[in-house]
Amino acid sequence: MTTYETLLTQGIIDHNTQAGYWDGQILTDHLDRAVERDPNAVASVDSRGSLTYGELAQQVERTAHGLIQLGLGRGDVISLQLPNWKEWVILHLAAVRIGAVTNPLIPIYRDREISFMMERANTRILVVPDSFRGYDHLALARRMVGGQQDPARVMVLAQDPANPPALEEGEIAWGEFMAIDWASKGSPEELAERRPDANDVALLMFTSGTTGRPKGVMHTHNTVCAAGLPWPDRMGMDHQDVIHMASTFGHLTGYLFGVELPILLGAKGVFQDVWNKEKFVELIAEHGITHTSGATPFLHDLLDASNLADHDVSSLQRFCCMGAPIPRVLLRNAREEVPGLSVLGGWGQTECALSTCGHPSDPVEKITTTDGRPVRGIEVRITDLDGTALPAGSEGKLWVRGPSLFVGYLDQLDKTREDFDGEWFDTGDLATLDEDSYLTIAGRSKDLIIRGGENIPVAYLENVLHEHPYIASVAIVGAPHARLQEIACAAVVMNDGAGPLTLEAVRTYLDEKGVAKSYWPERVEILEDFPRTPSGKIQKYHLRERFTGDTA
Fold first, then answer.
1. Which of 103, 193, 283, 398 could form a disulfide with 79 if both were Cys (CB 3.0 to 4.6 A apart)?
2. CA–CA separation, 200 vs 219, rounded Å?
3. How far apart are CA 309 and CA 166, in angstroms?
4. Contact between residue 532 and residue 538 where contact means Cβ atoms under 8 Å apart
């Protein structure tokens, strides 16, 4: 049994329990209710097949007993570096059932990231595909465990189940593992005895690295359920919804709205393991998808799909864009191309989950200029650098408090206490909160550009440039300057077929838009694409490094 040091206190537990945010339920309780409602309802659809809720529950039980036989105990970590396959859901729910901890690993991570995260997590079982998108994940897994003093077990899923790979001694083939009647080797009572407390750590997810080295974020069963439960009320969703996810389950957005939300609702989840905009259009028409969540580029791609006009996509009601502002032109195009579609913004972090989001009834101005209002149970406040509360409309440091906050960074409680006192979390973001309680993210505190003593409104400048007909995406970052201290630099990705923009052309455009001259960028660089996290967030620190040293 592995234990974790967290900032969770009895006072926090009592407060969230008495307020009704924590009810002691774990995700498998919601699975059991979905089975009771309709065991024949479809639970999961991926590129390899589908499962009903009855089938899912049976496979979860078998897997849970099997993991016990492999020696996985309460608090032990099972790391999943899998695509968005239904087996991800099975393994996670099995881990929940026996009190183990799921550590999602994004499929594009390689040796450096995986070795760091496995060592930090003390992984006991590593689950990988044999290969995916042309990469040999099995070879990666062998390199990882070969360097461990106490090697993790390796479980392998064949990308083509009809042609499983040859395995070495001690490695576990998923197909063979699931062919064993593990339940006959255990009992329902054994699973009941291993049921975790809802305040136990359930999820260990490393930060995406927008600002540097990843940290292991610990969430309990209570905090992750509290993150998903407000969503149906805010969006008006129920078990009849069909929920799509193309963002990796290894990121909190993918996990919450791909893995967890369908289970909480007893709804159908439709997963894409490889993003393809034309395939997404086909899936909407085939399954009647009603809801999807992802970064803004996914919405841009949907509207650009060559087959959009050839399929009935009228079932799609909500597209929730996280991680970046929604350009006004994109919202306008969405309403023209997919009538009836509500595009909503939202904001969150691995540490605090989705904390604010829009509502389908929000006016256009709120959708395009804000990140929505706090969800149930979440409080936000804006302060100056000294922690003094600021009035509505003032830009300052963003703090969050609520039932979905993490309980600490793994083995870094000192670092945790720098940002989090167990109650209020310093997000590191700059934001404003208007009189209607709508939040607007102005950027990371490290994104703040102060040119000659004047703050440059990064998000505002990016939104204006997003309106340029030639620009697909833009990111504004600061670079050091000998006289002005900092200047604004624009990294730009062009629309297909558009010629490159010069600095002079960008400045002329901003002048025509009435943007103050002191806000204009002083460098423009055209890129094929931005360095991004696996969830689609732009890694601005890489862009800063690119511009640093080239200014004077």
1. 103
2. 8
3. 45
4. yes
Question: What is the Cα Rg of the chain in Å?
Answer: 24
Give the list of residues 6+ apart from residue 522 with CB closer than 8 angstroms, or none.
Answer: 487, 488, 489, 503, 551
Bridge partners of residue 382, in order along the sequence? 398
From the number of C-beta atoms within 10 Å of its C-beta (0-12, 13-18, 19+), residue 260 rates as: buried
CB burial of residue 163 (10 Å; 0-12, 13-18, 19+): exposed
The Cα–Cα gap between 44 and 143 comes to 32
Helical axes 53-69 vs 27-37, angle rounded to 10°: 140
Token pair for 92: 């996670």
Q: Is 422 left (phi over 0), alpha (psi -120 to 50) or beta?
A: left
**Token pair recorded at residue 202:** 């359930």
How far apart CA 375 and CA 438 sit, in angstroms, is 11
- Beta-bridge partner residues of 527: 493
Predicted confidence pLDDT, tens digits, the chain (552 residues): 778 999 999 999 999 999 999 999 999 999 999 999 999 999 999 999 999 999 999 999 999 999 999 999 999 999 999 999 999 999 999 999 999 999 999 998 888 889 989 999 999 999 999 999 999 999 999 999 997 888 999 999 999 988 999 999 999 999 999 999 999 988 999 999 999 999 999 999 998 554 456 799 999 999 999 999 999 988 999 999 999 999 999 999 999 999 999 999 999 999 999 999 999 999 999 999 999 998 888 898 999 999 999 999 999 999 998 766 677 888 889 999 999 999 999 999 999 999 999 999 999 889 888 999 999 999 999 999 888 999 999 999 999 999 999 999 999 998 899 999 888 999 988 899 999 999 998 876 656 687 765 667 787 788 889 999 999 999 999 998 876 768 999 999 999 888 889 999 999 999 898 777 778 999 999 999 999 876 677 888 889 888 886 544
Please state at what angle helix 296-304 crosses helix 328-337, rounded to 10 degrees.
40
Give the domains, in start order, of the chain with CATH numbers. Answer: 27-195 (3.40.50.980), 224-445 (3.40.50.12780), 448-547 (3.30.300.30)
In 3D space, the residue among 267, 231, 287, 228 whose CA is nearest the CA of residue 34 turns out to be: 267
Which residues lie below 8 Å from residue 503, measured CB to CB, with a gap of 6+? 521, 522, 523, 524
Nearest residue to 168 via CA among 147, 145, 149: 145
